[in-house]
Amino acid sequence: MAVGPRRWPLSVFTVHLVFIFAAAGYYHSVLIRFQLFGWSCTLLQNQNLPIALGTKPSWINGLIKALLQAAQANVIAVDWVHGATAAYPTAVGNIMQLGLEIFSFIHKLQAFGMAEASVHIIGVSLGAHVAGLVGHFCDGRLGRITGLDPAGPKFTRASREERLDPGDALFVEAIHTDSDNFGIRIPVGHIDFYINGGKDQPGCPRFISSGYSYLICDHMRAVHFYTSALEESCAMVAFPCFSYQDFLAGHCLDCLNTFQQFCPTIGLLNNGGVNMDKIPTEVKVYLATAVAPPYCVYHSLVEFRLQQKTTSDINIEITFLSGNTSYRTSIVIPKHETLGKGLMTHSVPLCKVEGVMLYRPKTWLRKKEELPISVQFCTASLPVDKRKMFCLSQILEKNIPLSHRLTVACD
After folding, report:
1. Measuring CA to CA, which of 90, 187, 213, 294 is 20 to 30 A from 259?
2. Which of the following is catalytic: 120, 129, 136, 149?
3. How far apart are the first and last CA of the chain?
4. Residue 51 backbone phi and psi in degrees, to 5
């Protein structure tokens, strides 16, 4: 069945094909032993025509609506319920035939003048590897493939011909949210977004007593993040880094070396917003999110510099204040060091944060360590431009909070 903003077919010279593949039915039915959703779905998206497949999950209509509002596109939903709701090894075995069927369909559209480069395939879970197979059959000439938490079981050690990889389209991106369970751990695209480190998503249950939600929440967050990004409440921008821990520690502050200052963004921007003649492959990029929609947040560097070293760790709590909302984190300056830094996330731009409160909590230490310390506090939004950093110097005493107005200009 075709779903779109207008009747299809259009003039084939203006149509951009978007296929949308949803997650394999295995994750929606077999794991919980009954069919919670009756239609396993997969979406493929390009710039003017989308397709959807599978056991219809509760989120599918929202994703299609977001796609249609974000771009002039038609969405095609591909129902492969009988192939997707078998035992997982059987569903994996079925993706080759499904990929061939979709490849054949695309080939028929080409006969009417549709260009392969106009096709964008969005595949969720097992559907991401279906998208990869279609791209492989098309010799990598498809315009774009987006994998939403590509399935991990049976694919982590698979050959590139058997799974999604950067050679399957002119631009391949993947969003990882459950890399320690149902999702794949390895990078499979030109750009791989590891949201919140790619696992253990905020707001998802952490106890097995939560049942089905415990099993699937992290995996399906990729879909919800992508839908939220399409709705453009704010940009979901990511940054290249060696690890998520290094990212949170404030060691990866821009995209200069990897992407020539263009930071990847989740959504429909060409090449993820990276404007380069040749995009590198399998680049891991990181970002944090909020617990609930809209998931997008802003990232800011916060750092403290001591005038002189101390013989014990210095812990400083920092709070950003914006209206009735506050955002809080703690920074530790290690003993015998003068610098401590990290990231702060907040739901409003840094230029709309009205004030900052610094607090040095009281600890049970000898009198010498209770002395006030002289510290310089600085902050800047990512990607960091040191010329635009806000800094102030303070004398911090234990157990006495200090507040200051934060004045950062909006770009």
Report:
1. 294
2. 149
3. 45
4. -135, 140
The one catalytic residue among 219, 224, 299, 346: 219
Is 168 known to sit in a ligand binding site?
yes
Domains of the chain from N-terminus onward: 2-287 (3.40.50.1820), 298-405 (2.60.60.20)
pLDDT in tens, 101-135: 889 988 888 887 778 888 888 888 888 999 999 99
| 336: annotated active-site residue | no
3-class DSSP state for residue 329?
strand
For the beta carbon of residue 33, count every other beta carbon within 10 angstroms. 8
Catalytic: which of 29, 125, 179, 381?
Answer: 125
Q: Is the pLDDT of residue 228 over 90?
A: yes
Please name the residue that has the structure tokens 């492969």: 80
325 exposed, middle or buried (CB, 10 Å; 0-12, 13-18, 19+)? Answer: exposed
Annotated binding residue 7: no
Q: Tokens for 228, please give them.
A: 């939220």
Categorize the per-residue pLDDT at 243 as very low, low, confident or very high, splitting at 50, 70 and 90: very high
CB 258 within 8 A of CB 166: no
Annotated active-site residue 411? The verdict is no
CA dihedral for 274, 389, 351, 202, sign (positive or negative):
positive
Q: Is 165 annotated as a binding residue?
A: yes
Predicted structure pTM score: 0.86
Dmax over Cα atoms in the chain, in whole Å? Answer: 82
**CA proximity to 125, closest of 255, 252, 23:** 23
B/e letters for 211-240, b = 16+ CB within 10 Å, e = fewer, are eeeebbbbbbbbbbbbbbbbbeebebbbbb
Residue 201 phi/psi, 5° resolution?
Answer: -70, 135
Cβ–Cβ < 8 Å for 300, 346: yes
Q: What is the mean pLDDT of the chain?
A: 83
DSSP per-residue string spanning 245-284: HHHHTT-----HHHHTT---BSSSSGGGG---SS--SSEE
